[in-house]
């Protein structure tokens, strides 16, 4: 509950900043939809079940072009997404669609300890998942590495999450989580 609350708070703070209002007056629009709630709560439950000591992620691809939001059309990344990704490295992407939503950015900004290339580690397990959208320019996949950090003498576990998840239902995320756990994640 605490982790889900922290993710929602971070999202509300970003929305408030880009709308020039307070957290108490934020209207979540598409972020308040049931799938975003499922995404945030599902991510919080998943991370809790995994019990990660440290989480590293690759730089974040946001996509290119324009996206329609509750207030009209805007360039990618959407304003709240951009706000949430401050001080987080972005990956170059020529995919003409929104690859990172405000919900996804809030989850990353709250959970990830460091961003960059795959850290030195001994990989114990690898989990895979795939989204439904056919991006054509790149795979729409999630890969999670679980292992021991080399720089700490192998004493700590390292979890690496790479994804470009978008427009996917909470049910599919739950299914992917189940498959990841069955695969040893």
Order of helices and strands: HHEEEEHEHEEEEH
Q: Strand fraction band? A: 15-25%
Describe the global form: globular
Helix count from the secondary structure assignment: 5
| Radius of gyration using CA atoms only | 16 Å
**Which secondary-structure class do the elements indicate?**
alpha/beta
End-to-end C-alpha gap: 22 Å
Number of strands: 9
The largest sheet is: 5 strands, mixed
Mean pLDDT score, rounded? Answer: 84
Residue windows where pLDDT falls under 50 for at least 5 positions:
none
Binned, the helix content reads: 25-40%
Which strand order do you get reading across the main beta sheet?
Answer: 6-1-9-8-7
Which keywords apply here?
35% helix; 185 residues; 5-stranded mixed β-sheet; alpha/beta
Question: What do you see in this structure?
Answer:
- The chain has helices spanning 2-19, 34-50, 79-84, 102-111, 170-182, and strands at residues 55-57, 60-61, 66-69, 72-75, 90-91, 114-115, 121-130, 141-149, 157-162.
- The protein is built from five helices and nine strands; from the N terminus they run H-H-E-E-E-E-H-E-H-E-E-E-E-H.
- The model has no long low-confidence stretch (mean pLDDT 84).
- With 185 residues, it is of the alpha/beta class.
- The chain has a five-stranded mixed sheet, with helices on one face. Strands 2-5 form a two-stranded parallel ribbon.
- Helix 1 (2-19) crosses helix 4 and helix 2 runs parallel beside helix 5.
